[in-house]
Specification:
Number of strands: 0
Number of helices: 18
Order of helices and strands: HHHHHHHHHHHHHHHHHH
Helix content: over 70%
CATH topology: Sodium/glucose cotransporter
CATH class: Mainly Alpha
Number of domains: 1
CATH architecture: Up-down Bundle
Strand content: under 5%
Distance between the termini: 56 Å
CATH superfamily: Sodium/glucose cotransporter
Oligomer: single chain
Length: 483
């Protein structure tokens, strides 16, 4: 691709805007509470689009369109599972988590909430959950860096390693500066831009005469939700993605940060509308790409949106569309880095090293944590053969299996115990890691499903053997009264 001046101007103009928001957020961040959860003062629209943008990420503009470009609308089952899972998460988890985390001595992170929910004086549960978050978020963040590298490599003609470095520096910079305010407000603008791009691109491509002609010649299997290659294991695996929502720390933290509990209803409606429209746009983009590039197949399917933006639009619009891809990538990486920063600050440094640390000191440690995780993730992303979708699916499964059952039991089951929570996290995480290493037959089933099931059973059995104390059950009863 030839770099054009309008693309450069619009692209870097967008970056300057995002950095400006980061600087504004820096001025508004006075305490560690502000840095981690924005002082629990987020509005419904910002919360909704922040949830959507941080959830969907580069996967929405790179991974999913690429999968549809290759395999057709059979990949839509991922979207169906995600929509259903997200709706249940908003409906059943959001309010309870927002109320309970504030009642639990204003818990700022999931590990902090688990520790206070189960009155874990020894800190074992916090340690296990914090280590699990850092493990899987390192891979999740790496997926975003791969997406950023693909973008800079294709648009600006850079070598993969240089593209990775350039993208990572830009993405990390404003998270380092602004914290939760920066992340949430940039996610709001990024979510708007992502939705516009995902609806605009396929509409323009399908309106072209040659595309409409090619549609009649397209293999019918590409437009079918079920094909001869569809298997029961494959279908269940795609739908199982929806289970992941209950355990994603970067999404759950948005529920914890909303200003008013009563705003969650309107926030849910905005978020679900955004999500459904964005997923439909991503699916349509994949089909549009398979038609537009029918005679010259793409070397990397995950670049289909980038190539459509460059080939079918003038450079000014193309620059904005390229910025939309960066928006998708940035909106998830910043959330992931912020959660990692929070865990390092609250759940390791303050818990084990400096309990009396000041807010300023904790914010500094948090920002250094952002850099540390970014460096490790960047090393993992150095492999140019890395797939955005593959890295996302692994991390998504890890969080869904390890934390999903813990969050649900913590909010809905009075007899759930600390030992049950520890067993749930360990069994879920280990199952995902081991299942991922196997392949063939039943092991082709997406690892989140066996991980979620086994983690749930472990949590129930251990909680029945090691029951919670009267103090913990009484605290839970007080929580339910506040709902």
């Amino acid at each position: 691709m030839t770099i054009q001046l309008p693309i450069l101007i619009t692209f870097f103009g967008y970056l300057i805007l995002m950095m400006g928001i980061g600087f504004w957020a820096y001025k508004a961040t006075d305490s560690v509470d502000d840095y981690i959860l924005g002082g629990r003062a987020m509005g419904p629209a910002v919360t909704a689009l922040s949830v959507g943008a941080s959830d969907m990420s580069g996967w929405l503009l790179l991974g999913l369109p690429g999968a549809v470009y290759l395999g057709g609308l059979g990949e839509a089952w991922i979207g169906i599972g995600l929509v259903f899972g997200a709706w249940l998460n908003w409906l059943f988890v959001a309010k309870r988590l927002r109320v309970y985390t504030q009642l639990a001595d204003n818990a700022l992170t999931l590990p902090d909430f688990f520790e206070k929910r189960f009155n874990d004086k020894q800190g074992i549960l916090k340690l296990v959950s914090a280590a699990t978050i850092l493990l899987f978020f390192t891979f999740y963040t790496s997926s975003g860096m791969v997406g950023g590298a693909i973008l800079f490599e294709k648009v600006f003609g850079l070598d993969y390693e240089i593209a990775l470095l350039a993208g990572s520096v830009i993405i990390v910079a404003y998270t380092f500066i602004g914290g939760f305010f920066a992340v949430s407000w940039t996610d709001f603008f990024q979510g708007c831009l992502m939705l516009i791009a995902l609806l605009f691109v396929p509409v323009v491509i399908f309106s072209q005469t040659e595309t409409q002609t090619g549609l009649s010649e397209l293999d019918p299997a590409m437009l079918s939700l079920l094909s001869d290659n569809t298997t029961a294991i494959g279908l269940v695996s795609l739908l199982a993605w929806g289970l992941g929502y209950f355990g994603q720390p970067h999404i759950l933290s948005r529920f914890m940060a909303i200003g008013k509990v009563s705003d969650l209803t309107i926030s849910r409606r905005i978020a679900m509308t955004w999500m459904i429209l964005a997923l439909l746009g991503a699916l349509a983009t994949g089909i549009a790409g398979s038609l537009y590039f029918a005679t010259e197949p793409l070397e990397n399917p995950e670049t289909v949106f980038i190539h459509l933006a460059h080939a079918a639009f003038n450079p000014w619009i193309g620059g904005l569309l390229v910025a939309a891809i960066l928006s998708a990538i940035m909106s998830t990486i910043d959330s992931q880095l912020l959660v990692c920063s929070s865990v390092i600050t609250e759940d390791f440094y303050k818990k084990w090293l400096r309990p009396s640390a000041s807010s300023k000191e904790l914010m500094l440690v948090g920002r250094l944590g952002v850099l540390a995780i970014a460096i490790i993730s960047g090393i993992i992303a150095l492999n140019p053969e890395s797939s955005v979708l593959a890295l996302v699916s692994y991390a998504w499964a890890g969080f869904g299996a390890a934390f999903g059952p813990v969050v649900l039991f913590s909010l809905f089951w009075q007899q759930y115990s600390r030992n049950g929570a520890i067993a749930t996290i360990l069994v879920g995480a280990v199952t995902v890691v081991l299942w991922k290493q196997a392949s063939g037959g039943l092991f082709d089933l997406y690892e989140i499903l066996p991980g979620f099931i086994l983690a749930t059973l472990a949590g129930i059995l251990v909680s029945l053997l090691f029951k919670p104390s009267a103090q913990i059950t009484e605290q839970y009863q007080n929580f339910t009264v506040k709902l």
